Amino acid sequence: MPCPPDILELGRSTWTLLHSMAAYYPDHPTLQQQHSMTGFILALGDFYPCQECAGHLRKELQRHPPDVSNAAALSDWACRLHNLVNVRLGKPEFDCSKVFQRWRDGPEDDDACPTGH
Ligand SMILES: Cc1cc2nc3c(=O)[nH]c(=O)nc-3n(C[C@H](O)[C@H](O)[C@H](O)COP(=O)(O)OP(=O)(O)OC[C@H]3O[C@@H](n4cnc5c(N)ncnc54)[C@H](O)[C@@H]3O)c2cc1C
Asked: Which residue intervals define the domain ERV/ALR sulfhydryl oxidase in the entry (predicted)?
């Protein structure tokens, strides 16, 4: 039986899901899709299973509500949110102009990554 995820594994997995959902979010989302994505992100603040992280997240969501207008805006918002956490933890900031390359398109060398979805 594997161990439950610690704060690091939980964080990496959550960022992977959040950035990937943002990268594959529509360029022209319907109102229903916008509400649905906003609800998903707000629920993270309510249910993220690390109390300290969730507390910080709720404060940041109040200060910087998610921009669900399109994939680029949502990806940039998620990148800035992640950078706030990076800075708080003493980690380097990520260059937000590279979010699509990191989470959707991959490096220019086509063979560098296995084909996915
Ligand atoms: C909402 C949330 C709040 C958190 N709060 C805390 C906390 O209060 N205390 C705590 O100890 N941990 C917290 N974490 C966990 C923390 O952010 C990291 O996930 C964890 O420390 C593991 O870090 P890592 O160095 O493996 O890379 P991660 O920070 O998990 O990043 C994974 C990958 O994302 C990419 N990346 C990095 N920055 C960005 C960015 N800005 N935009 C796009 N891609 C990026 C990089 O390629 C990186 O390898 C939180 C996680 C989440 C999801």
From this structure: 3-103
